[in-house]
Write a structure and sequence with these properties.
Layout (H helix, E strand, L loop, with lengths): L2 H4 L3 E3 L5 E13 L10 E10 L19 H10 L4 E4 L3 E5 L2 E4 L12
Parallel strand pairs: 1-6
Antiparallel strand pairs: 1-2, 2-3, 3-4, 5-6
Length: 113
């Protein structure tokens, strides 16, 4: 499965209730590159879930303290309200019905440091 197959999919909680849709993914880089010509290994950290799905990019406004130009930042924060991060370990499975979360999953802040 590739990431574009997951974008827009329903996200279901442990009871099967829809909590939103996958809008983006977060990755982390593990370790150092093997050489200057290569990249560090990327690992899926989690998914961003938005209860009011839209395909617009965050335009970098998910970073803490980024505010200028303020009209765009304010609009993006309003548009993305309610969005949360679900870590990969909270995903119970991915099927035809969408992404299923484990019971007791944690909604984390989508804001980057």
């Amino acid at each position: 499965m590739i990431l574009s197959d997951l974008l827009g999919r329903d996200v279901l909680d442990g009871t099967g209730a829809k909590v939103g849709k996958v809008t983006d993914a977060r990755f982390v880089l593990d370790g150092l590159p093997a050489s200057e010509a290569s990249l560090a290994q990327a690992r899926l950290y989690g998914f961003l879930v938005n209860p009011r799905f839209h395909r617009a990019s965050y335009l970098g406004y998910e970073r803490r303290g980024l505010t200028a130009p303020w009209p765009i930042g304010r609009l993006e924060r309003w548009w993305s309200r309610g969005t949360f991060l679900v870590l990969w370990e909270d995903v119970a499975g991915i099927g035809d019905d969408g992404v299923r979360l484990r019971p007791g999953y944690t909604r984390r802040s989508p804001v980057l440091p």
